[in-house]
Design a protein that fits this description.
Blueprint (H helix, E strand, L loop, with lengths): L1 H5 L34 H7 L3 H6 L10 H15 E4 L2 E6 L10 E6 L2 E4 L5 H9 L51 H11 L6 H9 L56 E7 L16 E5 L16 E5 L7 E2 L3 E3 L4
């Protein structure tokens, strides 16, 4: 009996099965409703969420009786949808592989505003229906011959996977994908914003602010990977999710999904050197993308510091973008 008192019944270890990635079933495409644009240019700018454009170009509407009210509303919308990234710095390797002792560049970043979410299909639809692809002033002149290629599955201007110039109704709050870096930059310019630089993106994700502690984060939420805080391959979603999900994975200032869901275009060229220090030059121009996506298998690629590049004209299924704004306007 005594022996039984001190005996211990073997306990089966509780091992939580790891979610297995699954292939998402394709949804039946139900096109989003058309947008009925307001005729008044000032009210239309608000309707289209061109908040920064409205503020920057306020003088053009100075005779409008509603300009003060709508500019105030635009400021409030920016306050709600953007977060302040404080002054800091980012150290970015020059070489293809960030091995110990590899050459690095350190960039100072000044305070700026960064979108809490990536730009959604619903937001990008406003750009398309307002004729963004036809407004040549939004696009670099040397890119004009390529505009004919920026079509959807039905040969209409728009992101690669849309139909008839409209997104799927079920994906309105998902990040827009199938857009190249130039389309992302054109949208940002149209709305009055810009794309973040690579250093700014990394600063926001690593939260490497200037302080005596001199710390940085491997992930926006801390230093350990947690698949409950981001949407990558190991999470098992197998597709994009709405931009406001995974709230526990937010950076300290509330910016969401810097890791996972979709890679994000930055405004920076992808420049690296080989082991001899010579620049690695490809056949096509490449831009830097950061953050990993829902189908990123290698976990070391879904961190605040991993960097890679993509041909700037590529319109990939897993690359989106978010907006940035200078504190004093662009």
């Amino acid at each position: 009996m005594a022996l039984q008192l001190f005996s211990k019944k073997p306990v089966e270890p509780k091992v939580r099965p790891r979610p297995r990635p699954r292939l998402a079933e394709p949804d039946a495409f139900i096109p989003a409703d058309r947008i009925e644009l307001q005729a008044d240019p000032l009210h239309q700018a608000m309707q289209l969420e061109r908040y920064a454009y409205l503020i920057i170009n306020r003088s053009e509407f100075k005779e409008h009786p509603d300009v003060d009210k709508l500019c105030l509303q635009a400021c409030e919308r920016i306050d709600d949808s953007f977060a302040l990234v404080p002054e800091g710095f980012a150290t970015i390797p020059r070489t293809l592989h960030d091995s110990p002792g590899a050459e690095e560049d350190t960039f100072e970043t000044t305070p700026f505003l960064l979108g809490k979410h990536c730009v959604t299909n619903a937001q990008y639809q406003k750009f398309v229906e307002a004729g963004g692809y036809e407004q040549l002033e939004l696009w670099p002149k040397e890119l004009w011959p390529h505009l004919i290629d920026f079509k959807d599955l039905t040969e209409c201007p728009g992101p690669r996977y849309w139909r008839h110039g409209r997104p799927s109704k079920k994906l309105m709050d998902h990040p827009v994908v199938g857009v190249c870096q130039f389309e992302a930059a054109a949208y940002a310019r149209w709305a009055g914003f810009r794309l973040p630089t690579e250093a700014e993106w990394q600063m926001a994700a690593t939260w490497r602010i200037r302080s005596v502690a001199n710390t940085m984060r491997r992930y926006p939420w801390g230093d350990a990977l947690d698949i409950n805080r981001c949407n990558i391959w190991a999470t098992g979603q197998g597709r994009t999710v709405p931009v406001d999900e995974y709230q526990p994975g937010a950076a300290p200032n509330g910016v969401l999904q810097l890791i996972g869901n979709v890679w994000e275009w930055t405004a920076s060229d992808f420049e690296v050197t080989d082991h001899t220090g010579g620049p690695v030059v490809g056949d096509m121009h490449m831009a830097t993308i950061r953050g990993g996506a829902y189908d990123t298998y290698f976990q070391m690629q879904a961190t605040s510091v991993f960097r890679t590049g993509l041909v700037s004209l590529a319109r990939a299924h897993n690359v989106g973008f978010r907006l940035a704004w200078n504190l004093r306007g662009n």
